[in-house]
Amino acid sequence: MADAVRERREFAGLEVPPARGRFREGLRGYGLIVAMWIRSTMTYRTSFVLSTLGNAAITLLDFVAIYIMFSHVDVLGGFTLPEVALLYGSCSAALGLADLLLGNTDRIGARIRDGSLDTMLVRPLPLLAQVAADRFALRRLGRIGQGLGVLGWALWTLDVEWTAVKVLLVPVMLLAGGSIFAAVMVGGAAFQFVAGDAAEVQNSFTYGGCTMLQYPPTVFATDLLRGVTFVVPLAFVNWLPALYVLGRPDPLGLPGWAAFLSPLVALAVFVPASLAWRAGVRSYRSTGS
Amino acid sequence: MRQRVALYAAVAAGGFRRYATYGTATAAGVFTNTVFGFIVAFTYIALWEQRPGLGGYDQAQALTFVWVSQSLLAAGALIGGGFQEELQERVRTGDIAVDLYRPADLQVWWLAADLGRAAFQLLGRGLVPLAAGALVFRLALPSDPSRWLLFLVSVTLGLVVSFAVRYLLGLLAFWLLDGSGINLMATVVSVFFSGMLLPLTVFPGAFGEFVRVLPWAAMLQVPLDVLLGEHAGAGGAVRALGFQAGWVLVLLGVGRLLQSAATRKVVVQGG
């Protein structure tokens, strides 16, 4: 399908940028669409402020539930409240980042169904850039802010012997974690080409994954841990780096250096995700409506 | 009268059929509910191993709470996905004028459609996650059929309470025009105050007592307690169902008042 569009564009005498240029073009297009949505959001500034605060308050209730749990116990799975807050804050901020940058990729199922994906395909911009920037919601800064807030409290409260490596690992964890979630979102969007409107499957890996990652890995069954380490490597979002920061062993017995693999894992999951995406776009048949 | 009943039954059947056509979405939803069920179940095991009897439940009861609440999530539209977005959209576009012109009551019409939807979700998205949970974990599901019957009555009342709350939200579109902000807040409130995140009996002190008398408790916490036998005996059952029925009457009543205020506001533009 993408090739067909390319040919059509060449036929129409439109300039088709070469491969590397296309990536840059995609980024530029993404930026332009995002800027458009931000301008439109900022037209109603009070509404934006309220919805951002609302967004933060909403995600905070998850943490309130954890807080209530800890009003009954001192440790959960051997972890204290500040330790769980480290896990909660890091995965919430990482997911928030991915959600902000390309969270609306899950709308692709709806766009396939109502036929509006066709309009996107004829525009001279990579489809992924358009799908990712679709209805860019700046209010999602609320979740990032709330995650960073809880993370900040955790780092402030925790009794950690800080080394330069540990300090550096925290921002790396957030960025790599966000990238892993982003790759899962692209893969999930690709899946919708095959399965139709299955946005919820994607949500169970992103939101469900984050719900899991906010609790200590010691809480879960070993098979589940293997699944989120070796199959969909969500454990690299925050569990492994956070365990290193806390000086705790990994329940699966992975060596300490596994904590530093997150950026590589993020790159590695983008390969199958982008292949799936390309296959999905190529297999796309319009509903004709 | 009989015509009325037939009409609303047809509307309910339409609601059922409409959701039955989304096969993939239902399968995806079942998958999601099962995944979340597993995640929450493991955290509850960790919690109840340290505090057996927390909130008045043993571990099997706590796990039953997890899986049954996953099964009721879609039917009760606790995270949205019901009709209120559609109602708000019809208000925004003016299509609501057509609805008001129909020889049927607006509130009962939407109630019938929503109960049809809920009935499908209960079967389509309820049974499989619960079966998955029962296969893997030891649950405390009752063997007494009368308890299940009572549970079904309680679930039905809970679904009507959920409808009544969402109907109020839907009607707010007459004043707010855009309902997205209010829907977002409502979702969060309903997930937290229904007991979806944590059973309300675990909430501490006066705050716990407060959340247990709010209407959201009638949507999930009360049906689950009925199933788990927390409201044992005739007196307990009457109190539990009476609590739900009370909220049904109050909320549907407020809905009627708001509805008449809203419809007086409608100005139908010609053309």
Explain what the structure shows:
The complex is a heterodimer of chains A (289) and B (271). Chain A is built from 13 helices and no strands. The model of chain A has no long low-confidence stretch (mean pLDDT 89). With 289 residues, chain A is mainly α. Helices cover 76% and strands 0% of the residues of chain B. At the A-B interface, α3 and α10 of A face α2 and α10 of B.
Please render the helix and strand layout as text:
The complex is a heterodimer of chains A (289) and B (271).
Chain A: H1 2-11, H2 19-42, H3 45-70, H4 81-102, H5 108-114, H6 117-121, H7 127-133, H8 141-157, H9 164-195, H10 199-213, H11 222-231, H12 239-246, H13 262-283
Helix pairs in contact in A: 2-7, 3-4, 3-8, 4-8, 4-9, 4-10, 9-10, 9-12, 9-13
Chain B: H1 2-20, H2 23-50, H3 59-73, H4 84-93, H5 96-101, H6 106-124, H7 127-136, H8 145-171, H9 173-176, H10 180-194, H11 205-211, H12 215-219, H13 221-227, H14 233-265
Helix pairs in contact in B: 1-6, 2-3, 2-7, 3-7, 4-8, 6-8, 8-13, 8-14
The largest contact between protein chains, plus residue counts on each side, is: A-B, 37 and 33 residues
Give the integer mean of the pLDDT values of chain B: 91
Helix content of chain B: over 70%
- Give the total of beta strands of chain B: 0
What distance lies between the first and last C-alpha atoms of chain A, to the nearest angstrom?
17 Å
Order of helices and strands of chain B: HHHHHHHHHHHHHH
The overall average pLDDT of chain A, rounded, is: 89
- Principal-axis shape of chain B: globular
The rounded distance between the terminal residues' Cα atoms of chain B is: 35 Å
Instruction: Write down the overall geometry of chain A.
Output: globular
* Binned strand content of chain B: under 5%
Q: What's the total count of β strands of chain A?
A: 0
| Helical stretch tally of chain B | 14
Largest sheet of chain A: none
Oligomer: heterodimer
Please summarize the sheet with the most strands of chain B.
none
Order of helices and strands of chain A: HHHHHHHHHHHHH
> In terms of structural class, how would the helical and strand content of chain A be classed?
mainly alpha
Radius of gyration of chain A over alpha carbons? 20 Å
Low-confidence stretches of chain B: none
